[in-house]
Amino acid sequence: MTSSNRTDHRAGPAIETAGLVKTFGDIRAVDGVDLRIEPGTVYGLLGPNGAGKTTTVRMLATLLRPDGGEAHVFGHDVVREADAVRGLVSLTGQYASVDEDLTGTENLVLLARLTGHAKKASYDRAAQLLDAFGLSEAAGRQVKNYSGGMRRRIDIAASILNTPDLLFLDEPTTGLDPRSRNQVWEIVRAVVAQGTTVLLTTQYLDEADQLASRIAVIDKGRVIAEGTKGELKASVGAGAVHVRLRDADRRPDAERVLRQALGADVQLEPDPVALTARVGNGSPDGAAAAEKASRALAELAHAGITVDNFSLGQPSLDEVFLALTGKPDGRTDGQPDGRPDGRQDGPPDSRPEPQPTLKKEATA
């Protein structure tokens, strides 16, 4: 699909759902989800394992039939117009979808031929994507010998072979090392720069913070908060006070003083001299938060508690998630990240991997 085809869809949202429901027996995996996602953006579904993220994506991609509610992709109903939806979307799941016994080139050429490309055009497109994703040197190697980061990149390359209008990325960096995660993030940015809309599901707070322009926090099948990063952070207060003490023995006293001065719960950090508390819970008033923080610092000094460091900063997404769900991060069930066979990564690739530079698919 070329960029000129996309303009036909731009009048309305890329995705719109109302009261979307999916049940498995007695389990309500998705429980009345409402979403509106604008074209050409990255939208993040953030939540723990089992929250309903993947089930939501599978319904939107027409792989599961909803049990209630409605969902539209570029104006097409996912149930009544499933064929039209499938022509607009592509899905990269949590685990490798390419054939690991084939080379990188063979995988992409096979998929190109299956989707109607001529032989020469298939090889040209495969070479273009392998180069863009930093995989040219590995093009002739079997995918089973790729590192985990390389496998994810070939997966995403396969997903955008025909330049989809909407790309579903379901936990794209699960099990990857930090360098590979950053490379996948660069690929996502390059894909969006072409005009593709991305629905990203993730349990990693920093990933949502880096990529998504809007985020829906989903827990137990329900959207419990939605907005921009700034809106979500403001929803839990104007800021967070971070305190570092001189003497760890005074931390119980400092906790009491801060709780009274700020009128908020105080979190004891793993570092025995560190404490954190939200300020202005539910209010984005930065001036009021600064006044409260100043008063708290004065109260600590009055109590004879020596403070080595005292700062007021905007809440992080970690603090937002904790405030909304009562859980410290998205990974709550102890399940290992990685592939179904338990492998976390492929053979290490010690060579530097080039950063991706994505070009648009050539048109006839």
Automatic annotation (TrEMBL):
Per the UniProt record, the source organism is Streptomyces liliiviolaceus
Q: Organism classification, top ranks?
A: Bacteria, Bacillati, Actinomycetota, Actinomycetes, Kitasatosporales
Q: What InterPro entries does the annotation carry? A: AAA+_ATPase (IPR003593), ABC_transporter-like_ATP-bd (IPR003439), ABC_transporter-like_CS (IPR017871), ABC_transporter_ATP-binding (IPR050763), DrrA (IPR005894), P-loop_NTPase (IPR027417)
For membrane topology, the record states: Peripheral membrane protein
Under the heading Gene3D superfamilies, the entry gives: P-loop containing nucleotide triphosphate hydrolases
Keywords, comma-separated and alphabetical: Antibiotic resistance, ATP-binding, Cell membrane, Membrane, Nucleotide-binding, Translocase, Transport
Q: Which Pfam families match?
A: ABC_tran
Q: Which PANTHER family match?
A: ABC TRANSPORTER ATP-BINDING PROTEIN, DOXORUBICIN RESISTANCE ATP-BINDING PROTEIN DRRA
Localization (cell): Cell membrane
Q: Where is the composition biased (Basic and acidic residues)?
A: 328-364
- List the protein's name: ABC-type xenobiotic transporter
**Protein's UniProt keywords contain Kinase:** no
SUPFAM superfamilies reported in the protein's UniProt record? P-loop containing nucleoside triphosphate hydrolases
Residue ranges occupied by any ABC transporter domain in the UniProt entry: 15-245
Q: What is its EC number?
A: 7.6.2.2
